[in-house]
């Protein structure tokens, strides 16, 4: 119900004319004419009275359901939010009038609502208290003795102004129960401030003088209410509100006119940091421990993943003796990565701002870590197999003014829980020393008997000499790995930026026991923590560590609450996908039944012994350009020894090689010309010298062509080229450019065709390999830019690297296309050439078939939704604005930047939709019938190559089917471990409650400790019950709501205390005997 009577626009409100006397100008009365004229122009959905009422049948209640279902066109023309539409057309004026009515006294009595005093004294009302009434000063102070943080309004005779309870005479007494006066009060400071959840309040206080004298308690100078702390921590963890923004919000709530309350920001920061730390200690049971806070061990405050295997907690007896087919159920999946957004400026130091508990939760111990790093001076930053040293070195390019350039972290790869002591600062990029120490730091908390699968995006470089580096770590974290118990992998998205060899040896799809782990889960914590990157950047080291610990703890708790539902969704999908993969594999096997057994034997032998031939690796490797050249040079040398006199000092092989070298120079200079057009005259590119050098090379070629290919000179003469033709545009006319008729009658020397054919074959092979490498580089560059380039300087540098990479892609693709066209000219038609034609759509990064299909379905869904929105607008008579959804689907392009040229495709800015479509056609798959681009097979179309491709495809299908089977089993095991982990936590809290010494703590303190432990025991029992229900209940259909969860109260830990009784401090009472305890917990 509204706190005011419903007002009609046509009926004026009665006002007291006497209140207008202070104004020297006439106050305009409310006019309805403009509003009514506006309403007449509207087209209401509901007909107005008088508009053919016989055509409409309206219910008294607009929300009453009817049996007449509207047609599809009628539904499309209706607003999505009918309640909002109805409010906007029918109720806005009434609400505005009601709000204005609320600014006056309205129906409030002019006398005091409590004591009934006269109207002259009843000029106060509370903004917070329920049940509005005007109060006199005495009653207002009396009723707010327990609510000193309420805001009071005072009626001036014309309007209300805000005042404070301190100004009204409220005095708060600390140290005594409510209503009891202190015999020896001591007046508190005049500027005492309470920071509450609704603002900042100046209050008058008295302290207990006896407590100050006898107990030597220091009087407070300011206070921060728990509600304000809880509100801040919630806003800080969930929407990532910064402390400054939260405090500014409190200031605005206190006074929205710009008058600042007393500044207590530094106090707020200090107390909130202390409270966060205390909550971390309290929630992990440190308040119940005999050794107290200082007895906290390394990583003890970290929340552990309830689904990951933990011997003694959630694994059965004898798990370490599981047969080979069950060993996938006892693998600890770990993901490692670095984030360069979590920087910290060179502010303060560890001595001036130490952490309150650094090393107790997720951040590793800073002092031994710092001492170790000071001893390592010869280790460089890690690069990748793709040779991205420039990219990775760029991580440390932006370290000026920063003492920390990022953090490295380890998480459980399947559930994304941050591991204990698994986060450490980076000082100069992703160096071996940093990542080794972070890895060893969290590994000491994992059982050494568990098998480990370690996922890292640059593991192909990091794992080299890893054992030697780990042996040199400090004794506190020194680690000895058994390589038989450890496998290394690259995340499924990052592996596209690696060489083909890495994609074979480090693919999670091909690792036995990995299930469908993708290794990319560590990116999700980075996404969460990015919201506080700007805030922690200007913190001291200790404050930053405490904040990160708090946020990692909140992240792990959210994952704990949602883990059962996550596993249920994965299980439903895995069962469905497993059946599909089994059917696909059976179909593929039936089609190749004569070879399937042999292929399976190769896979089994390789998995048993990795020294055997890899069934996933292609062995079809041809000769390189240098090898072909060397082969023909050796043949020419043998011919010369045999007495065959050469016709020229330059051999035929050297002639063809010189032609191809000049062709490469032409491609390079054409690329520089395009680059200069992009950069302008300021690009620092000089073409004159390079063109002069190329002209000299072409002149030498013409001399050689007069000897080897006279027909080429005749063809050049027929072209009649202008004199001002640039060198890079002059036709070189190799033997392949001369027709067969022209080659005859001495137009082309014998043997040149064979030499060019062999070299062109080698060119196709090397160009394709180089193109794959640059596409790998491109995938990694774009991933790096998307995740780490935020500042303008970093974004510009990353954009420059991307541009350089795209030019290389263009050069290699053009080299392949030239070589392929030459082969077609030499053979006579495309069918005689083993290499395939390279189309624009073929030049794209590697993607799995499942991703192609999934992305295609997403795009189709987006297109259908866009068409439906456009049709709705057209039916309403509104024009459809030109929009494009294509750029959103192109993952290889940056959505935040316009690209004028994409891999050599000229782009006209006047038609952005064509640009997006053309870019997608060049970079991206689109149709469901398309699969991985043929360029990744790296083979020619020969019978041996086709046979090998079939074997690799069958082996991958076999691996995919087995991985999904493993995924189903792993998910079932994880779902079973969750209740066991929660039961272990429940028992731990019960034990904490049992061990409380009531005599030592006292009744009041013991009651609070037992209450908290009992509540947490019930909490974990509820979590276990909900997890089991989530995994076993029937699947809820899409769009339907599931059963709402409730918190159940179980039997109290009541050996020492009942829920409805107070703790007795006597050692022997009716509730404290040991036999009852044993019986209750049996």
Layout of strands and helices, then pairs:
Elements: H1 33-41, H2 72-77, H3 82-90, H4 92-103, E1 124-126, H5 137-143, E2 152-155, E3 160-163, H6 165-168, E4 171-173, E5 185-187, E6 193-196, E7 199-202, E8 204-208, H7 209-214, E9 222-224, H8 226-237, H9 243-254, H10 265-283, E10 331-339, E11 344-345, H11 366-375, H12 389-393, E12 402-404, E13 406-412, E14 418-426, H13 432-443, E15 451-456, H14 459-462, H15 466-470, E16 486-489, H16 500-505, H17 523-529, H18 533-536, H19 541-591, H20 593-608, H21 625-641, H22 652-679, H23 688-708, H24 710-719, H25 740-743, H26 752-788, H27 792-827, H28 849-875, H29 886-889, E17 901-902, E18 905-906, H30 912-923, H31 943-994, H32 998-1001, H33 1003-1032, H34 1074-1080
Parallel strand pairs: 4-8, 6-9, 10-15, 15-16
Antiparallel strand pairs: 1-2, 2-3, 5-8, 6-7, 10-13, 11-12, 13-14, 17-18
Characterization of the model:
With 1082 residues, this protein is of the alpha/beta class. The chain contains 34 helices and 18 strands. Helix 23 (688-708) crosses helix 24. The radius of gyration is 39 Å and the shape is elongated. The two termini are 54 Å apart. Residues 165-210 form the CxC2-like cysteine cluster KDZ transposase-associated domain. Residues 55-79, 1060-1082 are annotated as: Disordered. Residues 1063-1082 have a biased composition (Acidic residues). InterPro entries: CxC2_KDZ-assoc, KDZ.
Search tags:
elongated, disordered N terminus, five-stranded mixed beta sheet, 1082 residues, alpha/beta, three-stranded antiparallel beta sheet, 34 helices, disordered C terminus, single chain
